[in-house]
Amino acid sequence: MNMKILMTGANGAFGDLTARALLTQGHRLVATMRDLEGRNADAAAALRGSGAIVMEIDVTDDTSVSNGAEAAIATLGGLDVLVNVAGTGTHGLSEGFTADQMLRLFNINVVGLHRMMRAALPTFRRQGAGLVINISSLLGRLSMPFYGPYSATKYAVETLSDTYRAELSQLGVDVVLVEPGGFKTSWIGNLIHPDDADCLEGYGEFASLPAQALAEYRAFLDAKPEQDPAKVAAAIVSLIETPAGARPARTVVDFVGMAEPVTMMNQQLAQVTAGLYQAFGIDGLLKLKVE
Predict the structure, then answer these.
(1) Catalytic residue among 4, 137, 154, 164
(2) Contact 109/87 with Cβ under 8 angstroms?
(3) DSSP-assigned letters across all residues of 26-87
(4) Predicted TM-score (pTM) above 0.85
(5) Which of 4, 137, 147, 150 is catalytic?
(6) Is 154 a catalytic residue?
(7) Alpha carbon distance 24, 241 (integer Å)
(8) Cα distance between residue 83 and residue 131, in whole Å
(9) Can you name the residues that pair with 4 across neighbouring β-strands?
């Protein structure tokens, strides 16, 4: 069945690859991004050439999200799936990130996702069906040095998605997470680094460690062709094409050794959650109502 899909962050590697994979499968897609006439003009043109409907949405702006989602739903003649890909990353010692940087990061990665869901959910609730796919990260399950602010946003995405999943389950709306590991994409080159270098002088030689670690990680990914970002796109497409009620809450996408331990963590979390929900008499919220 061909789906009507709205996706953010289509200019990035995961978004672009997912868009092309969806179009190949015959789905109808509104692919969105910021700055269509500027830095993302080439990406927009390429997606249009592949058959996508490209629109501008800035997930940090209420009006842009509201107007963009409304236009997308009108153009598609409805909506079946929302894919929240838009996001940005950070790298560096956490203390060096200013309060403004943190607020901007959360506005993109967390509040932006929330804005998009609020724009799509009225349609899903009216029709008693719909799917939201939120792109998280293994760093939303594990804490690693030098990724603190980014990891914090992805932890927030994880718990927000879990809450939405329970609250919407009896309305027929499914909310799932995709948790990619690190991939060799433009995401690395676009990482935000700390603005407040002065406060890091007290770290001494340790302050140079993040740059060294990032260079080593780039080299590591260069040597791991199996860590192919197209596999993230394939996971998203697979979730969309899986029948409602059969989709896993979390899908880990990693091929360099982190998938197994994180999958075990996810399984343990699911067991603990099921037990708590049962204890509070709300375990029915863990099962999607499918008409």
Answers:
(1) 154
(2) yes
(3) T-EEEEEES-TTTTTHHHHHHHHHTT-EEEE--TT-HHHHHHHHHHHHHHHTS-SEEEE---
(4) yes
(5) 150
(6) yes
(7) 13
(8) 8
(9) 28
* Sheet with 53-56, side-by-side order of all strands: 53-56, 28-33, 4-7, 81-84, 130-135, 173-180, 250-253
Nearest in space to 66 (alpha carbons), one of 75, 58, 78, 76:
58
Structure tokens at 179: 């948790």
The single residue of 4, 136, 155, 164 carrying the catalytic annotation is: 136
Pull the structure tokens for residue 244. 């409602």
Per-residue pLDDT of the chain (291 residues; tens, 9 = 90+): 899 999 999 999 999 999 999 999 999 999 999 999 999 999 999 999 999 999 999 999 999 999 999 999 999 999 999 999 999 999 999 999 999 999 999 999 999 999 999 999 999 999 999 999 999 999 999 999 999 999 999 999 999 999 999 999 999 999 999 999 999 888 888 999 999 999 999 999 999 999 999 999 999 999 999 999 999 999 999 999 999 999 999 999 999 999 999 999 999 999 999 999 999 999 999 999 998
Q: Which pair of tokens denotes residue 251?
A: 């899908």
Domains and CATH numbers, the chain: 4-286 (3.40.50.720)
Is 253 strand, coil or helix? strand
Cα 252 to Cα 212: distance, rounded to the nearest angstrom: 27
Block residue for tokens 């927030």: 156
Q: Encoding tokens for residue 9?
A: 């962050």
Residue 79 Cα to chain centre, angstroms: 19
